[in-house]
Amino acid sequence: MRYLRLFYCLLSVFPLIGNGQNTDSSAPYNRGKILYLQHCFVCHQLNGQGIPNTYPPLAQSDFLNADKKRSIRILCEGQGGIITVNGKQYEGTMPAMVLRDQEVADVLTYVHNSWGNTNGPILSEEVREVRKTTAYSTFEQLAAVSAYPPIPKAPAGLKIRELVKLPINGVRLASDGKGKSLFVLSGSGDVHRVDIASGLVKPLIVARDYLVKKVGDIGGPVMVTGMTVDKQRRLYTVINQQNNATLPVQNFVTVYRSTSFNPAGDPIDLKPWFTTNYPGNSSYLHAAEHIAFGPDGFVYISNGARTDGNEANGDTNYYQKGETEITACIWRLDPRQTPPTMEVYARGIRNAYGFTWSPKGEMFATENGPDAPAPEELNLIEKGKHYGFPYRFADWTKKAYNHTPEPPAGMEFTLPIPNMGPDGGFMGSSISSFDPHSCPGGIVWLSDDFPEPYRDTMLLTRFGNFIREPRDAGFDILQVRLKKNSTAQYESEVRSFLAPLGRPVDIHQSGKGSLYILEYSRPTTPALSYSMPGRIVEIKVATTGGAGGVPPK
Fold it and tell me: What is the DSSP string of 37-48?
């Protein structure tokens, strides 16, 4: 029950759109199917087969079928330690799910009567009685442990406030940079508008208005984590959807671009602008994630690996090889073209959730590493370079897995930027670049609007670990200051900037001296459920003239 990196973890609570089959909301089984897609399928898969050696199967599971009350308890309280399912051992932690009694009954009714399981319905009354015997004897008690944490103390010279509690699990922030409003993207493709002055949140773009026809056409689940706004105030979203109608299953990537504005001047009417596809994977849906405009005016999109480490899928409905020419890389597109042509800008990048540019035009990207305990990476991205995946991770020279392939003869790799401490994974020696499994996400380069100790540094979010580790990693914002060593290569000084935070996933700069941090959900440790929506935290320069205190150097 270990997690499969940032985007997998996010997906586990995304409101996914179904495959067009019977959706009678009055039937517990069909309500449960929707809940399963929202909360369970990423780990246990669409077919209930789980992921070998990582997440146990639910399909024809002897562990599941042996004890209905135990399955209720696990959803209400969570499960840890070693379990044996169909003769194989699994070790890890599954958090309690913040679901009401009827919702627990519905999702378990679906699971207990799918994929060869025939256990009959689960009733809300049964859930209520079992819940009384758990650590959280009522839904209200469980919900209470998912309350919003206190706002951390502001870094020196800056001030901090909670801008707004969100009604959705946000995955990305964007704006026109003027500091008046923010756009918040949900994992289902909805976009909300936040007025910065008042904190008022309202829906702007509803996913079904521009996705439903596409979903009905090709039938698979949807994953959305990319959004940006161009200089013409056009809004872009990046949509991933698996096509289950043809085999092998394909992942279709569509970039939508707004075509008009509402009376308030906000972008609306999203239409397809670019599309491509490649083989999908039932276990890893990293897919296309971040989209941003570079200083050259081109559009850059990170497209993640379709595997954890180039392994075969094992399910004959899916492509039986590893990466393709357009996965695990960064694409570049020309926004002046419709549709644009796409080139691969850099390769060997497993899962880059965020990137930014320095005033010199240098591109820097965060990267999430594998389930193996390799450090997470910060890379200087240069055109034509290869960053190692799937042949090596971070600065490791050893193989991460037995199936790790040998690199092609003559291939050169660009190593991550070393972290010289004192924080972010540094423990007396350098690390390339951050704690394993800490999930670095959104990243910004601070402008001249900030006091000198922050100016010309990068801030990056760390979503936080799910894989069992000796200590929690992430749930924070790191500050990165770069310098070149004696060989003219970048090294970084890494310091904690803000902690703890509830699953911070993105950071955005909009307006003079203003930053906005998007918390995906509320917990500040891996132990609690992450299904409750988070909030937006604002950080601003404390005084008009500069720092109101003496920031750390």
Answer: HHHTHHHH-TTS
Q: Are 185 and 203 in contact (CB under 8 A)?
A: no
Phi/psi of residue 256, nearest 5 degrees: -100, 145
Tokens at 504, concatenated: 């911070």
Length of the chain: 553
Is 181 a residue whose pLDDT tops 70? yes
Q: How far apart are CA 325 and CA 518, in angstroms?
A: 32
pLDDT in tens, 38-48: 778 767 888 88
Q: What is the pLDDT of residue 147?
A: 79
- For residue 390, the 8-state DSSP code is T
**Cα→Cα distances 193→15, 172, 183, 199, 524, Å:** 19, 12, 5, 10, 26
pLDDT digits (tens, 9 = 90+) for 273-322: 999 999 988 777 789 999 999 999 999 999 999 999 998 877 888 898 89
Instruction: Identify the three-state secondary structure at position 411.
Output: coil
Is the dihedral angle over the CA atoms 345, 462, 388, 321 positive or is it negative?
negative
pTM for the structure as a whole: 0.79
Integer Cα distance of 105 and 160 in angstroms: 41
d(CA 33, CA 148): 29
- Is CATH 3.40.50.300 what the domain over 6-144 is classified as, yes or no? no
Any idea where the domains of the chain sit in the sequence? 6-144, 158-169+348-544, 184-346
Query: 10 Å Cβ neighbour count for 153?
Result: 9
Strand order in the sheet with 458-462: 419-422, 490-498, 476-484, 458-462, 440-445
Rounded Cα–Cα distance for residues 442 and 289 (Å): 11
Task: Give residue 246's pLDDT band: very low, low, confident or very high (50, 70, 90).
Answer: confident
Q: How much helix, strand and coil, in percent to the nearest 5, is found in the chain?
A: 15, 35, 55
Comparing CA positions, the residue from 528, 538, 486, 485 lying closest to residue 503 is: 528
State which amino acid sits at residue 170: G
- In one-letter notation, the amino acid at residue 489 is Q
| Rounded distance between C-alpha atoms, residue 385 and residue 295, angstroms | 19
pLDDT over 80 at 131, yes or no: yes
Question: Would you state the pLDDT for residue 217?
Answer: 54
* Beta carbons within 10 angstroms of residue 359's beta carbon: 10
Give the CA distances from residue 247 to residues 52, 275, 279, 395, in Å, rounded to whole numbers and listed in that order.
Answer: 22, 19, 9, 37
> What's residue 19's pLDDT?
34
